[in-house]
Amino acid sequence: DMHGGMQGVNLKPENMDGWINQRPYLAPLVLTAVAGLLFLPGLGSRDFWAPGEPIYAEVVRVMFEKGQWLVPKLNGELFPDKPILYYWLALFVSKLAGGVNEWTVRLPSFVLATYAFGKTFFNRKIGLISGLVIATTSRVLWESRFLRLDTTLSLFLFLGFFYFLKAFLRQETRAYYLGAYFCFALATLTKGPIGLVLPALAIGSLVLATGRWRELPRMHLVAGLIIVLAVISPWLILLHLNGEDAWLRDFIWIHNVQNYALKPIGHVRPVYYYLVNLPPDFLPWTLFIPGALIFYYPWRERLRDEANLALLCWFASIFLFFSASKSKIAYYLLPLFPALALFIACYLSELSVKEKLSGLHWRLTALCLYLLVSTLFVAGFALPVVTYKLERTLLPWSAPLSVILAAGAIGLFVSLRQKQILRFSSILLAIFAGVGMIAGIGVLPRLNPYKSPRPVGDYIRWRLPEASQVYVYQSTMADFNYYAQRDRIPVVLSEKELAALPATSAGSFLLISNKDLPEIEVAAPRQIVAEYRIGDRKWYLVKLH
Asked: What global pTM score does this model have?
């Protein structure tokens, strides 16, 4: 009970500052416990959902079972989608656990790095609040339960930026520059050139804004280049020696240059896409942003603090870079979330002093928060009714969710009326923790029928002979390989290819969706041996020979 635990400590501002400063180990322990409660329960209870998750899991499975740890492969071919580091991390955890499963390849997020930044450049209270804020944003909560490389990328990027600023702004030992370059190299080995491009944009804009050109010779740029090459080159050299230069060529051209600026593989969105999607992704803390902007006006005064200026450069560089890309996905913006969390944490720290709870900024913030309280209260009573009409199997889980939302809304209302903003925030955090835990343990696993390819894969794995040949018709995603435990399910692109498939003694089978099934009636007799619905699409397993 996070709310109850926090009530055990007097949360008056002066007392909170005291116990945090007197016990410097306490804030990291609190954040670790909160992150564990938010991210770990039920982490492996949900299947890998298509599209995407089963693909990365299959790459790790092949590495694990075949010992092919050098080159990412999928469906028997090179998979030039992402570099190697994330797969190695997941492979390491899987080795410790004895197998690849839904738990071992979902890696944690970057809460403690945000705390470290806040503690260093502001104070421990702001560091603690920023860690709690980022842990409970809607996008971070959602992505923490998915197999997503961007959470690991965000950790390396922001940790590297933190190390860089310790040397650049605090004039601490210049060895921190080398630590920053090492983190950026790890980010590059996780997701490619953006591991260097994003920090280069942010750092370049910061140097330009501060005019600290004389610091450039002291940044150890040559040593940084050597570190980056030392981290990345060994794997690239091994790729070359293994005759896999095609991986690097396809990765750089197709998944970076072409996907960013020329001909996107998918997810083509308008330039304003992130302006629309970022506010809901940062809920509930988005509601504090309008008031914070008014509170800190004129912003030029705020930006005289170079730590704030650095965070603005970080936020703006990432936001503008991805907004300029033709291909856009909401979770691409994860690396900028720490900057937003720290901005909100500074404002919440100010609001913990009751004298600051007045003026236009507070009236706007209070209005937003009352709207949130009303929404949560109504949602608490409406949830069982909506669940009963849409998905009755979730009714046992809607009851505790309803209680958490309704009771939490009452607690929020009382705290808001009393202008106890830290108590309000702790209750809000407890609500998100409770909702997140119940969703992870009970709700998300029951949504498997809408997203999971497991039933199809299990049928192939357990009901078909190992020697049988399975094909998939016109599918561009290898979503079934992991659960089918088949390294290769060849793709058939046309009726002509289908008609030319050779017969096998153990039988040949075709996976095909309801959209394509009518096309094969001429090319092959339609003998359906199994059918499964995944969301709005039905998949058939058709026996060919």
From this structure: 0.89
